[in-house]
């Protein structure tokens, strides 16, 4: 029963990633932009104007771009319950938290910021959801290993 629930969560995480990518694509197309590329260019311009040419903001913009591209792959892999999707998700974890890339920020933040006036509390809850996701993914990998050892 627990394995079934964990597998369901893995699929849900993949669906959320796919929905996020679709949202980005549709948003860019509606605004007559080249999906993903236009966002990167705009981010680099904003970073340059606010950071006085600091390479740190440019690095974060480029890294966020590659993170979003990697989500294009991890989402479908998670839906198919492939270990590669989990490993990509592990790699993405710290950068999702730093850059507030979904799943949790995208779907939970509007609700949290409405319910709690404290931005700090909302961010702590978002971080807790990301940690929970990470924990569920680790448990799924452990259950796969146990099923291979027993079967």
Question: With helices defined by DSSP (H or I, 4 residues minimum), what is the helix count?
Answer: 6
- N-end to C-end Cα span: 17 Å
Could you list the spans in which at least 5 consecutive residues all have pLDDT below 50? none
**Strand residue percentage:** under 5%
Overall tally of structural domains: 1
Order of helices and strands, N to C? HHHHHH
Largest sheet, if any? Answer: none
Number of strands: 0
Helix percentage range: over 70%
Category from helices, strands and their pairing? mainly alpha
Estimate the mean pLDDT confidence.
81
Principal-axis shape equals globular
Gyration radius from CA atoms, angstroms: 17 Å
Helix/strand layout:
Blueprint: H1 2-30, H2 37-51, H3 55-79, H4 83-99, H5 104-115, H6 119-150
Report on the structure:
The protein is mainly alpha-helical and 151 residues long. The chain has one domain (2-150). 86% of the residues lie in helices and 0% in strands. It has 6 helices and no strands. Helix 5 (104-115) packs antiparallel against helix 6 (119-150). It starts with a helix and ends with a helix. The mean pLDDT is 81. Keywords: Membrane, Transmembrane, Transmembrane helix. The chain crosses the membrane at residues 5-26, 55-79, 91-113, 119-136.
């Amino acid at each position: 029963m627990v394995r079934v629930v964990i597998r369901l969560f893995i699929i849900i995480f993949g669906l959320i990633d796919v929905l996020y990518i679709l949202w980005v694509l549709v948003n860019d197309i509606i605004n007559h932009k080249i999906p993903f590329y236009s966002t990167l260019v705009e981010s680099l311009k904003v970073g340059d104007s606010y950071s006085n040419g600091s390479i740190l903001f440019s690095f974060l913009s480029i890294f966020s771009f590659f993170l979003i591209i990697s989500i294009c792959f991890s989402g479908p892999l998670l839906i198919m319950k492939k270990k590669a999707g989990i490993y990509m998700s592990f790699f993405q974890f710290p950068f999702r938290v730093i850059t507030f890339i979904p799943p949790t920020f995208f779907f939970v933040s509007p609700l949290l910021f409405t319910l709690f006036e404290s931005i700090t509390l909302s961010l702590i809850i978002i971080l807790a959801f990301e940690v929970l996701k990470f924990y569920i993914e680790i448990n799924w990998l452990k259950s796969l290993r146990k099923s291979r050892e027993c079967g």
